Amino acid sequence: MILSLFPSRTMSAYMAKMFLTRTFAILGALVLILQSLDLLTESNTILAYAGNGDAEIWRYVSLRVPQIAATFLPYSVLLGSILTLSQLNQNSEVIAMKASGLSAHQVLAPLLLTGMVVAAISFAFNDRIVTRATSTLEQWKKVNYAPLPIDRGDRSNVWVKGDNNLIQVQQIRGRGDGAQLYGITVYERQDRSLTGILTAPHGVRDGDGWRVDNAERFTIATGQKAKVGSVVIGHNIRPDQFTLAHVDADSMSFGTLYQAIGDLQVAGRQTEALEGALWHKLSGPLSAILMPLLGAVAGFGLARSGKLFVRAVIGMALGFLYFVADNFALAMGNLGAYPPFLAAWAPFLLFLMIGEAVLLRTEE
């Protein structure tokens, strides 16, 4: 029953191979061009740090390429769909399939199934590779590409205000009362004036505050630095104020972001923008299924009528309109104008109906 929805096995494999070859060829070309252009602007900054060389350039490339590939994979799927269907149309292969009794949906079935496989690969790639590369690259940029041992599961460079003081922590490991602080700097203030700077290498939760070890205090008035040993700082600062001070959805996997949203909700903080980003981690990769449907207009109609190019342009316009609508909906979701689910899924569902309407109106 399910196999009857597809052309023959040979034809399905032929179409899937054409689709995948063109999609990833376009993606490879885009990544190569865009990465080269990106290096023109970033290489000077990377090499500005003394000691950086070719190894750091290649490290930057290894972290940046996954981001570019994830961003432009949906565009590549769209163009791959249009090129595949245009060639099938131009060679009269679509006409042959329809003459054998196949409907337009059956002709598209191999591409839609292949799109599902691409969507699954895209989700796994984004969740396991892109998020880690983004997290590492963002932390590396914060230190201007200086050497930095990075634990990708930790928070870095977090600022918190408490007891009228400003507290900077270079790295936070763990969650809740088990959180540990590393590289602590406390800017002690009185009436908005800086009175001293306390530094400590390590701190842990102690009652309603944080106990730091081997602390040193520099007093502004005297200009002297003295060791103060173990001291408690940051009274009434909750662990989530450190661990959830900055939640970057792009640097977190689906499961980690879901957990962070739950922690923020328990702490009574707003999570609508993050919820939209969480849903978009699912709807974004699924656009690979939508692209063959939007590009299907290029695969039907008579190629000799001279309108094949016009049909291809219409397919590209529908695809790019989807990306515009998707970015607009996400922006409105971040502003709170759209509910999170609507911001992530409305463009996908809307253009799914538009693609079906165009296909039914013109071919079915």
UniProtKB/TrEMBL annotation:
Record-linked InterPro entries: LptG (IPR030923), LptG/LptF_permease (IPR005495)
A Gene Ontology BP annotation from the UniProt entry: lipopolysaccharide transport
GO cellular component, as recorded: ATP-binding cassette (ABC) transporter complex
Predominant localisation class: membrane
Topology term for the membrane: Multi-pass membrane protein
Transmembrane segments: 67-86, 107-125, 308-325, 337-360
Cellular compartment(s): Cell membrane
Keyword line: Cell membrane, Membrane, Transmembrane, Transmembrane helix
Protein name in the entry: Lipopolysaccharide export system permease protein
